[in-house]
Amino acid sequence: MRLMAVLLLATAALPASAETLPNASPGDATTRSFTGSDLFQLSIAADPQISPDGRAIVYVRRSADIMTDRMQSSLWLIDVASGRQTPFAASGSSPRWSPDGTRIAYVAADGANPQLFVRWVGNGAATRVTTLPDDPNALAWSPDGRRLAYIATVAGEPTTLGKSPAKPEGAKWAEPLEVIDRITYRADGGGYIKPGHDHVFVVSADGGGARQLTFGKFDDNGPLSWSPDGRTILFSAIRSPDAERQVMNSEVIAVDTASGELRTLTSRDGPDNAPIFSHDGSRIAWLGFDDHRRSYENTQLYVGDRLAGAPRSITGTLDRAIEDAVWAADDKTIYVSYDDHGHRKIARVALDGRLSPIADNIAGGGIDRPYTGGDFSVSRGGLVAFTGGEANAPADVWVWSGGKARRLTNLNANLLEAKAMAPVRKIAVTAPDGRAIDAWIATPPGLQAGQRAPLILEIHGGPNSAYGPSFSSDVQLYAAAGYAVLWTNPRGSTSYGAEFANLIDKNYPSQDYDDLMASVDAAIAAGTADPDNLFVTGGSGGGVLTAWIVGKTDRFKAAATQKPVINWTSEALTMDATLFTSRYWFSKLPWEDPMAYWKRSPLSLVGNVKTPTLVVVGAEDYRTPVSESEQYYAALQIQGVPTALVKVPGASHGGLAGRPSQSAAKASAIVAWFDRYRNKASAAKGK
User: Fold this and answer.
1) How far apart are CA 537 and CA 657, in angstroms?
2) Helix (H, G, I), strand (E, B) or coil at 504
3) Vertex 623 angle, CA 622 and 627, to 5°
């Protein structure tokens, strides 16, 4: 196994034996290292839903199935008082409590397609509620518990042009022509979009025929929210005549559950989504912002009357983006989550905008890289269930009550207690212009004080997103191979306010390069990083910056650019969100100002590259398409720069690490590439 070879090569720089079990023999040392095989043993908690009375939590436990090499989701119940767990459903997702707390609706596989189920908590009896050709989502109970609303895809007829000759009976002809006429015709993770649109449905919670409430050539989006009297459901959608040409101009829409009559409640230029009725039905809260065609805007929390009239932002002074919102039972405050300096937080917001933070260790969403994330829900009495985590373990279920947070699960204790995990600490970084930049560094387990390690700079994507001190399997695998790992939030990152995020608006990559170099310099100055053993990698926006960096400096021994954009013109015309790049990241269209696109493309710097550079991409990436990576690989080959192209079969942009074996293999390939160019003598001396 290649990873084991890498671990053995790393021992000169890594006295891992100091981390082995008591009385272990030298041959036992590697058993303490975190390995690619351990990815199959990890579990992560997600979507914790607390019961209305606050006594129980149902959550999604995602774990790897080693036989199918896929992440599987099961549902578990937790007794809040005791912390006792019991299995609820062997497979399932999106659990939602009925208003009286006696039943849980959820989605689970049944035959070829996922379906909607309802299970009684008291006796475990379950019934299938739907028979659908596609996956139901955005589940929402009616206030009386008799109905469920959801969103599902309604198939449409494909576009045709002309017709084929008549086929003789029994003949085996080629597939018919495929005619594409939609502006957005493919989606990362979903592939080429089939004819049809997403609409709102209502079905009896006891099962039976579902009733479609919305129609037309538009896609309706959740979450869904019922009015207290059950007569109205709120959703969001872009339903203008030129809907296909809109990118972020959704509105809050109300549909009458009896007649299907629609009423559009908002009208500004910008997204309005995630609407929720207050418990008394007198107000609506929703998320949105005014679209100024910048690369980033803070999503704000708005409150209006029951028709969204007299809207006002109650988080305008926060200067942070709101991720989720839930009304408190008294309708006087709203619970929200938002990112702040690389940490996701939960707070209560009063209707006058006063903010009261309650928890700051929210985590979750993924395993491979240390992005911010996490979910929460609130009981009638104000207990908050959330996913929380730390740098050395994936997300677990926590509960907040009475001013204190309490951990309820420890899903990975059995595995991680037997592993030597990389310690993580924050380091201080000052950019050349004096701005403070947040950065974190993980060091190889057992690294002695005063000893330096080869350094991997790991750059996040987005670029408008954020890393934090969260668990990352990539970081742990790199550290187990003897590398220190540095990750940072350069300008353009979220969680620091709109001004910081927009420092790269219409100018990316730019000074974010300087922030990254300052972070590396800080790791060297701190005595951790070996200046003669520097490496760089990153995915998506991080892949862009990796390719940009090696076009501007030779200080790194090797690089691995993952799913990058190399040529902004080709990316803008081949990515899945066809209208996005030219509208939000540039001032003009590619043919109107081609040099603006070229000057910011890493391909323009390829003539400077001398750094051996690995190129990694998912074979079914439609966000930064495979052609971007292949362009760069070809250019590096023409230039005579050492390179290799790694394609991950079946992987999308968002799913590059979706299958555990591929996630482990990808990290191992990057380590193997870096090991080719690593100066072992320098590391061994502790230079």
Assistant:
1) 15
2) helix
3) 65
On the question of pLDDT at 461 being above 70, the answer is yes
The full DSSP string for 93-121 is: EEEEE-TTSSEEEEEEEETTEEEEEEEET
More confident residue, 684 or 369: 369
Q: Residue 651 contacts by C-beta under 8 Å, 6 or more apart in sequence?
A: 618, 619, 620, 621, 658, 659, 662
d(CA 612, CA 226): 57
Residue that the structure tokens 């704000």 belong to = 300
pLDDT at 31: 61
Distance (Å, whole) CA 392 – CA 373: 16
Instruction: Please give the Cα distance from 370 to 574 (Å, whole number).
Output: 28
Q: If you count them, how many residues does the chain have?
A: 687
pLDDT over threshold 60, residue 264: yes
How many Å apart are CA 106 and CA 136, to the nearest integer?
10
pLDDT at 365: 84
Residue 617 has pLDDT above 60, yes or no: yes
- pTM of the full predicted structure? 0.93
Please name which of 188, 194, 186 lies closest in space to residue 621, comparing C-alpha atoms: 188
Phi and psi for 83 in degrees, rounded to 5? 80, 5
Residue 612: the pLDDT is 98
CA angle 480-527-487, nearest 5°? 55
Among candidate residues 299, 312, 379, the one with its CA nearest the CA of residue 339 = 299
pLDDT score of 7: 28
For the beta sheet containing 558-562, the strands, ordered from the edge strand earlier in sequence to the opposite edge, are 424-430, 436-442, 484-488, 453-459, 529-539, 558-562, 613-618, 643-648
Which amino acid appears at position 113 of this protein? N
